[in-house]
Please model this.
Amino acid sequence: MATMRDVAVEASVSVATVSACVSGRRFVSPELKARVERAIADLGYQPDGIARSLRTGTTDLIGLVIPDITNPFFTEFVRDVELLAKADGYATILADSNYEVATEARMLGLLRQQRVDGIILCPAGERADYNFAAWPQELPMVIVDNAWTDTPFDTITLDNVTAGADITRHILGLGHREIAMVAGPRGNHTSDQRLTGFVRAMAEAGVPPRLDFIRHGDFREAGGYAQGMALLDLPQRPSAIFVANNNMLIGVMRAIHDRGLQAPDDISVASIDDFPWAGAFRPGLTTARQPVRLFAQHALRLIRQRCVEQTLSPREQIMLKPDLIIRESVRRR
Model:
């Protein structure tokens, strides 16, 4: 089995140069890097990750746990984290909990066994599902998206109350009063905050929301479809529906189509979470966009920072602002 020394001899460079090329942590000229990469390919060299981990105490691995890879928000977030991590010389191990807290716990345990340098967690459950005080505090962890203020770890969230209120105010500003909301699961912090924003904006306008117009889905397309159908089948259906995330929005749009209706001619629609084809959809969808790349940048920065700190600085609770994207899916009442 080829060693790093064999690669160095084959490429006529130092072992330190080979190490720098393999780790990506130090600049190597393109000419030397090309020679090392040719030697690695010719010799079939594979770095000994276990030996390196024992020697340095690091693995250059970051664990990333998300609840649903089919959700465009998490798809984009994973892509950005992996690109930024790669640029810093890290590799990522991705785990999808499928919104199952037990699966999430098992994946977190496996990541700890792999001795990852840090974990980025997008929790699947509600606050009662987590005993953060029992979690190892020496492992850098950043909690993203569905995050609570009382965790001992760094958190990065959207200002979900503002996002929910902004969308609702926009719909109200176009004359709608019979506004429904398809929220996420009860107890999910992100869902609860978006619902709070909706209720707050309705109260400011002096329009008490109807209880039968507030529905709870599961953040998935099927849940959005079921709740959309339920709203459309009411004796007095709403004139506009605010949907709490993009996956459920797809389900609501299918329900509108299956009932022989059109948006926005028959019913207006808006949601939180923008995605690449939201503007290409007809009608173009009005959304509150999340700054996904900023989520990834802050998460990687905090992991790197915690890995090198001798004395941990105070935890950070970062709340990012949404960006209201107005398109054609909400029409004047």
